[in-house]
Amino acid sequence: MVGWCLYSIDGNPFTDHIDFFDKIANALGLSLDKITKLNQLESLKNQWKSTFNSITQALALVDNGFNIIQANNQYLKDSKKTHKQIIGQSCFISYFNKDLASHFSPTKPSNYKYQQSLSQNDSKNFDILSQPVQADNHEENLILVMFRDVTEENKMESYLIQSSKMAELGTIGSSIAHELNNPLGGILSFLQLIKMDMPKDHQFFDDINEMENAALRSKDIVLNLLGFSRFQSGSPTEQFSISGCVENALKILELQTRSKGIIMETHFEDKGIKIDGNKNQFTQALVNIIQNSIDAISDKMADTPGDDSLIRIETHLKSPGLQITITDNGLGIPPQHQKKIFDPLFSTKQNSSGLGLTVSFQILAQHNGHLEIFSQLQAGTSAKIQLRLPSTN
Q: What is the pTM of this model?
């Protein structure tokens, strides 16, 4: 049997270098293990980064001073800044240009609601949440801050609440109105008969006249209550022009606006837009809204005579349909009243049933529309009607 033995260049057998080879093998093993772990860490890092960036809410990983260590793509998109620009900056100042750190704790979960003003009649609402997280490679805890835009969610919630109120009032109001109509009609008829037989110089003539006015006002309230009931199967529907309804509403109110010296401006992006529904009811909804603008301007003119008085009505194609904006430069609505403007029977004006805007809200809802009111005291009010057009359904 022949035996083989390998020799190195110096003539010594390789077996004399086993220790050396063992050291090389160990070093290679450690290097390969380190490379494998680095590859795994890089893979985990990429997975974490992909997950972090795929979240549709703006997120920022910050230190205890709420300075940014890392932010996701949505944060960069919302803040309109690059990653380089925001690193080390306050996550609140970078996002809102406002320091809100005092509302958050670096050691426990926090939640804060913030309203960002975009313009006189527009704003965004945010829920900002912070959550401390433990990071092994940091001496101090890090904080994850999420910026959640809840503007549309709040609008939808408000709309659903208001729609629920309208539905309840429609059911109750319709029943009450029908029950009141007959006795109210009888009272009004007898009062008018008494007036016919009573000389104007009679001591009770003024009292009877006031009773008649009260009965007529009650009749108007009953008619408005009936307006809350939904379209009946026999209600007339047709295709009508939006611009035509605006023009009709202005004609109805022309005597008031001219006598008060109120300037009416209109701008129609497209005068040919039509929708299906009840033309008269839609016109009435516009009349109610414009009437509120006229009243607000009248109050302003009483306080500061000589100021310019303007109501501007515009229509713009805006996703998902058409937006009608009715803006006035009247007194505006006090903040404490703004949340009540759609409440049935709420009014700050004398001799008003408080149903005008509520009726308009209901009519517009029946025409696939949504009404919002934006107002600032002493600066005016803007009513925005968003209509979903048939072609965009």
A: 0.52
Note down the domain range covering 83. Answer: 53-149
Which CATH number belongs to the domain containing residue 293 in this structure? 3.30.565.10
Examine the domain organization and report whether 107 and 217 are in the same domain: no
Three-class SS state of 351: coil
Residue 5 is encoded by which pair of tokens?
């033995």
Q: What is the pLDDT of residue 259?
A: 86
In a domain, 26, yes or no: no
List own/partner pairs for 262-266 with CB under 8 A and 24 or more apart: 262/294, 262/297, 262/309, 262/310, 262/311, 263/308, 263/309, 263/310, 263/311, 264/311, 264/312, 264/313, 265/310, 265/311, 265/312, 265/313, 266/312, 266/313, 266/314
In a domain, 38, yes or no: no
- Same-domain pairing of 216 and 331: no
Phi, psi of 314 (to 5 degrees): -130, 150
Closest CA to 284 of 360, 184, 374: 360
d(CA 71, CA 87) in angstroms, rounded, equals 8
Amino acid in position 56: T
Q: Is the pLDDT of residue 321 over 90?
A: no
